[in-house]
Specification:
Largest sheet: 9 strands, mixed
Number of helices: 14
CATH superfamily of the largest domain: NAD(P)-binding Rossmann-like Domain
CATH architecture of the largest domain: 3-Layer(aba) Sandwich
CATH topology of the largest domain: Rossmann fold
Shape: globular
Strand content: 5-15%
Distance between the termini: 40 Å
């Protein structure tokens, strides 16, 4: 199968690599050509100078970039992926973007006789590198069934949740839930430290009970070590939460906890932690506000 992958960031780079390693014929495009060449050298794939050229002849085209505007820039117009795709080809957008954009792309693709799925992912850089992402999908069932065997090369679970836009809406739910869990973990660890407890021993104990979570299992050690130079960046989380807030405003939904946590992330940014992992909420309590280190 010929495939194209557009966007070789910390997520897209290993995801495209899994496809090439699985035997697909992958052509990549990245705004920074040097990154695309590095990927080709590592995985022995091909690169193109525009998204349209990368998508030419591909049965399935993947996109994983930064935001709505980035997606539009690589999918629409004469140099966009849709222009290079043949009728019947499938466009899969892994970017965390708005549901409005997903519906827009779905309409544009179907007007040209092409398929579309919005398919944001969860699992972070480690999940992408290890091929164990979770994918939330919106679109038509026939398109999902076509894509699933390919998605399985880097996903441990994927599910079609409804029409176009449903994947992005589900990702908003994901980020809303994560915001509350991470802040709760930060508050709990800070409480344990200030109470004079062995925080590591406390986590070892409560992780086996109802308080346990992925964040607790995978982030408590680095949080206690005050290490945040990895993982899913605060800047990206605030972008994602902003998308959720915009959708909530349209739907008349209140998100008081998520909005409070977002304001805490704004403080982390002011500390110089825009590129720190989202678990850096603990730094608000354990570091001096003026001590932040720029990354």
């Amino acid at each position: 199968m010929k495939a194209a992958f557009i966007g070789l960031g910390v997520m897209g780079y290993p995801m495209a690599g899994h496809l090439q390693s699985a035997g697909l014929d992958v052509c990549v495009y990245n705004r920074t050509g040097g990154k695309a060449q590095k990927w080709c050298d590592e995985f022995h794939g091909k690169r193109a100078d525009t998204p349209a050229l990368a998508a030419t002849g591909a049965e399935i085209v993947f996109v994983c970039v930064g935001n709505d505007d980035d997606v539009r820039s690589v999918t629409l117009g004469e140099n966009g992926a849709l222009a290079g795709m043949s009728a019947g080809a499938l466009l899969v957008d892994h970017t965390t973007a708005s549901a409005t954009l997903a519906r827009e792309l779905d309409e544009a693709a179907r007007a040209q006789g092409k398929g579309f799925l919005d398919a944001p992912v969860s699992g972070g850089q480690a999940g992408a590198e290890n091929g164990v992402l979770t994918i939330m999908i919106g679109g038509e069932n026939d398109d999902y069934e076509r894509a699933k065997p390919v998605l399985d090369h880097y996903a441990r679970f994927s599910k079609l949740l409804g029409p176009a836009g449903s994947g992005q809406l589900a990702k908003m739910v994901n980020q809303i839930c994560i915001a509350g869990v991470v802040e709760g973990l930060a508050e709990g660890l800070n409480f344990a430290i200030k109470a004079g407890l062995d925080a590591e021993a406390v986590v070892e104990t409560i992780a086996k009970g109802a308080a346990g979570s992925w964040q607790m299992e995978n982030r408590h050690k680095t949080m206690l070590q005050d290490q945040y130079d990895f993982g899913f960046a605060v800047d990206w989380m605030r972008k994602d939460l902003g998308i959720a807030f915009a959708e909530a405003n349209r739907n008349g939904v209140e998100l008081p906890v998520a909005q409070l946590v977002d304001s805490f992330y704004a403080e982390v940014q002011q500390m110089g932690g825009g590129r720190w992992d989202t678990s850096s909420l603990l730094a608000r309590y354990t570091r001096s506000r003026s001590q932040g280190t720029s990354e």
